[in-house]
Design brief:
heterotrimer; A mainly alpha; B alpha+beta; C mainly alpha; A: mainly alpha; MetI-like fold; B: alpha+beta; about 35% strand; elongated
Chain lengths: ~250, ~375, ~300
């Protein structure tokens, strides 16, 4: 019990400290000099930040749509239609989950440079869609596996065609998982740093890249403020994703 | 050495809001096969877990071999448990499972080998020592669990619903075998069960529990033939009951006027201690102690009541009759099927029920 | 999508996509996408790793093992060794921290398990950059720890933890601890409590119960957790970049350096592929222990 509480402390203290100090008036950050909202105000006025947020949202929306379409189809294909070599195909589709992300980023960069596709929002989006496909696939497939196959069989038995059975029975039951994976993919895309780092070009700075450059150039309370906002946004999104998957 | 193997002194244990064990005192003798019998939630498993050391009493004390085991963890108690689910280690072979306790106590390897072989022999699993638990049948797993505990020669061997997971035939065979093994090794066995037949056949003494309390302790015969409460009478075996008021008392005998019988019917019975005229009482009567006849006969039976056959159920060794004594009272009777032109009664037939006064037990309310 | 308003012909075509005669069609889009943007780039990298660096960066196509020989240079070998070491230490720390909490959660009543798992996961959902920054904020010379310790008079001058290997391990452990806890939790949860009690009843001390029963029976979870922490730690880039210094370079930093600073793509590719070989080696060990892939490594993700 006490070890678990110590563990939780280790997990939470840094984030809480970060958020608390986003209200600290001191520019040097470590000593407490009173409450202020000036760092949040500073963020509001930051034009480059606004652009980065916009870029992040565009990339996240487009890559999530693509990844969800590809991932859901693949999950149904893998789970509902057994075929020879299924394990190999599954392994191949899930491989991006276990390969170090930096390899994905670097190799994509090589591809884009060699085919002369200028690095920018398009290349970033392509990369994000690629690493999100297996994530959607895993979640939707897990749900499919839990569904009782006799439900669809019952629908067939009651006279439904296989399409009607899928559309009328399986798909509605699958929707929570699909919605959950949409939210998760969206969040992962918003948060991604490494693949973005290697596939972004001038003008396609996303939010994490912006935070990175801020951190690189020195610790300021504005980063705390921005971090605090990001913490809350991520938690809200993932919380919603979990709630949907659980239904 | 103390005479008692296990002693519980006023032991209580609370689980959340419920009193799982309520001031239980109990002495279990050395070398005895003792059964704790009760429905689920009666606290019998909690007692077992306290003896094994997985739980500790909130109040009272437990003595094993005359010494308090308060604060002694399970691994320092000379007590071994045969788990209800067997809890065999799936990654160890049969021999590995049986040797586990000896290895933990750093018994020399040569002795371990000898004792494991002996234990395998005792539970008749020779040649299966290299199997994994998953490769064994339910009955074999049960034997491994038993051998794994026996091999340590504990002061007390605990069995948690030992035969619960076995099918009927195997269960009856194992009842006899468990008893045989216990007699051979001479260890104290404490067996927790909700299965009354198991408790009666295997044990020297039985304790009946309900809602954390100990209701009655005695030999299987005592428990069956002289239940001290309606619960015990009904939980162990089948029982017919009759409620009424005591009408007359004459030394050891009394008569009972039943509420559910015609006013003229008086029932003769053995008088319970402390019963006075007019006090309410319940009479309990085993179905096999009743005799049926088509005509009025008075040949040494103290009681006779008319009844109507509602249903006759043929069970092989016996026939079970359901009888209506009045609109509100129905009893069952078991008649052994002995053949030889035995009279069979049909539903609707009128019959007479007869029994001896001392075959019934009367309990004051 | 309202199918009723579509013409019969159109409905047939939608049907043909989702319930095709050849189920392979459902898999095709995902396979094509990942083929083009995951496998082709990896193949390209493999090809480039045998090439030479062009005069102005870029690639001069040849077939040479020079880049791989170059990896064996003590300078780079040291980076590899440091990475393996730091990843191993991170894994060990995660194991020591994660096992008690995973065990504790798995033994709670089912209803409270969910809450605790959520508590463990919540920090993990926060952007990795933000979490890394949090530790920088705490550990740096003018950071919270030093400020508090100095003002309490416990230390005279600041402790320099940031930009050391210790800082990297702290950052990585903080980043990947849930990867350890979740599979361990899943494994312990499947372990019947009666087995632990049985061992205890059979005279095993707590240490013996752990060593003889719990560890062997939760091995798949243990190995999965270790692999899930070790792989991303080995390929870490951001944590050592932000929390480490010039002398604590890891493979990820080396790769980034070769591609973006030195512009030596072939050598960078060779390093990446050696990294991938190390990762696949780890996976092979995992699959062996797991036994014929009974439970995919990714199973816990769907929990």
């Amino acid at each position: 019990m006490s070890a678990s509480v110590a563990n939780l402390l280790f997990l939470y203290a840094p984030i809480v400290v970060l958020m608390v100090f986003s209200f600290n008036a001191s520019r040097l950050s470590a000593g407490w000099q009173g409450l202020t909202l000036q760092w949040y105000r500073l963020l509001l006025e930051d034009e480059a930040l606004r652009l980065a947020v916009q870029n992040s949202l565009v990339v996240a929306v487009v890559s999530t749509v693509v990844a969800t379409g590809l991932g859901v189809c693949a999950a149904v294909g893998l789970e509902r239609h057994p075929f020879r070599g299924r394990e190999v195909v599954e392994g191949a589709l899930l491989l991006p989950l276990v390969i170090p992300e930096i390899m994905m980023g670097v190799s994509l960069m090589l591809l884009f440079l060699l085919v002369n596709l200028p690095l920018g929002l398009i290349t970033v989006t392509i990369g994000h869609a690629a690493f999100n496909v297996p994530i959607v696939l895993v979640i939707v497939r897990a749900r499919l596996r839990k569904l009782d196959p006799s439900l669809e069989e019952a629908a067939r038995d009651l006279g439904a065609t296989s399409w009607q059975a899928f559309r009328g029975v399986t798909l509605p039951l699958l929707m929570p998982a699909v919605a959950g994976s949409v939210l998760l993919a969206f969040t992962i895309s918003l948060d991604d740093f490494i693949v973005t780092f290697f596939t972004a070009g001038p003008g396609s700075t996303t939010l994490p890249l912006y935070v990175y450059s801020m951190v690189k150039s020195g610790v300021t309370p504005a980063i705390n403020a921005l971090s605090a906002i990001l913490v809350l946004v991520s938690m809200a999104l993932i919380g919603a994703s979990l709630a949907l998957q659980r239904r | 050495m103390a005479e008692s193997s296990v002693e519980l002194r006023d032991v209580s244990k609370r689980h959340g809001d419920t009193l799982a064990v309520d001031r239980v005192s109990l002495v279990i003798r050395r070398g005895e096969f003792f059964a704790i019998l009760g429905p689920s939630g009666s606290g019998k498993t909690t007692i077992l877990r306290m003896l094994a050391g997985f739980e500790s009493p909130d109040a009272g004390d437990i003595l094993i071999d005359g010494r308090s085991v308060r604060g002694v963890p399970p691994n320092r108690r000379s007590v071994n448990l045969v788990f209800q689910t067997y809890a065999l280690f799936p990654h160890l072979t049969v021999a590995g499972n049986i040797a586990f306790g000896l290895e933990m106590r750093r018994v020399p390897a040569a002795e371990i080998a000898a004792r494991v072989a002996e234990a395998l022999d005792m539970v008749r699993l020779q040649g299966k020592q290299d199997r994994l638990p998953a490769q064994l049948s339910g009955g074999e797993q049960q034997r491994v669990a038993l051998a794994r505990a026996l091999v340590n020669r504990p002061a007390v061997l605990l069995l948690d619903e030992p035969l619960g997971a076995l099918d009927q035939q195997l269960r009856m065979d194992m009842q006899v075998e468990l008893k045989t093994i216990q007699e051979r090794v001479g260890l104290t066995f404490i067996c927790v069960t909700h299965h009354q037949e198991e408790a009666l056949t295997m044990s020297d003494r039985v304790a009946v529990m309900r809602q954390g309390r100990l209701l009655q302790v005695g030999s299987p015969r005592d428990i069956y033939e002289a239940p001290q409460s309606a619960f015990v009478a009904n939980f162990i075996g089948r029982s017919n009951s009759l409620t009424g008021r005591i009408e007359t008392v004459n030394g050891l005998r009394c008569t009972l006027r039943a509420a559910d019988l015609p006013a003229a019917a008086l029932v003769a019975a053995t008088c319970p201690a402390g019963a006075g005229i007019g006090s309410p009482a319940t009479l309990m009567l085993r179905p096999e102690r009743l005799h049926l006849s088509a005509d009025v006969q008075v040949d040494g039976y103290d009681n006779m009541l008319p009844a109507r056959v509602c249903k006759a159920i043929y069970n092989g060794s016996e026939t079970q009759y359901l009888l209506a004594l009045s609109d509100r009272l129905s009893w069952q009777v078991l008649v052994p099927n002995v053949g030889n032109g035995q009279k069979r009664f049909q539903p609707g037939e009128s019959v007479f029920l007869r029994w001896r006064a001392d075959d019934a037990v009367v309990m004051p309310e | 999508m309202n199918l009723e308003v579509l013409s019969p012909d159109r409905r047939v075509s939608v049907r043909a996509v989702l319930v095709p005669r050849r189920p392979g069609l459902l898999l095709l889009p995902a396979l094509v996408w990942l083929g083009l943007f995951f496998f082709v780039p990896l193949a390209l990298m493999l090809a480039i790793s045998f090439a030479w660096r062009g005069t102005y960066g870029g690639v001069e196509w040849t077939l040479s093992l020079a880049n791989y020989v170059n990896v064996l240079d003590p300078l780079y070998l040291k980076v590899f060794l440091r990475s393996v070491l730091l990843a191993a230490v991170t894994t060990a720390v995660c194991l020591v921290l994660g096992f008690p909490i995973a065990y504790y959660i798995a033994r709670l009543p089912a209803r409270r398990q969910g809450i605790w798992l959520l508590l463990v996961m919540i920090p993990f959902w926060t952007n990795f950059l933000v979490r890394t920054y949090a530790w920088i904020f705490i550990l740096r010379t003018e950071g919270l720890v030093n400020t508090v310790l100095i003002s309490l008079g416990l230390i005279g001058s600041p402790i320099d933890v940031l930009y050391t290997e210790t800082a990297i391990v702290i950052g990585l452990v903080y980043g990947y601890l849930p990867f350890m806890i979740l599979p361990l939790y899943a494994a312990v949860e499947r372990l019947p409590p009666s087995l632990v009690e049985a061992a205890w009843d059979l005279y095993a001390s707590r240490w013996a119960v752990l060593r003889r029963v719990i560890v062997p029976l939760t091995k798949p979870g243990l190995v999965a957790g270790c692999i899930l922490v070790f792989i991303p730690s080995l390929g870490a880039f951001m944590t050592p970049d932000l929390m480490g210094g010039a002398r604590t370079m890891m493979i990820g930093n080396l790769i980034q350096h070769e591609f973006l600073v030195a512009r030596d793509w072939p050598f960078g590719s060779a390093i990446s592929l050696v990294l991938m070989a190390l990762v696949l080696l780890g996976l092979a060990i995992y699959l062996r222990v797991e036994g014929a892939g009974k439970r995919p490594a990714t199973e816990w993700m769907s929990r």
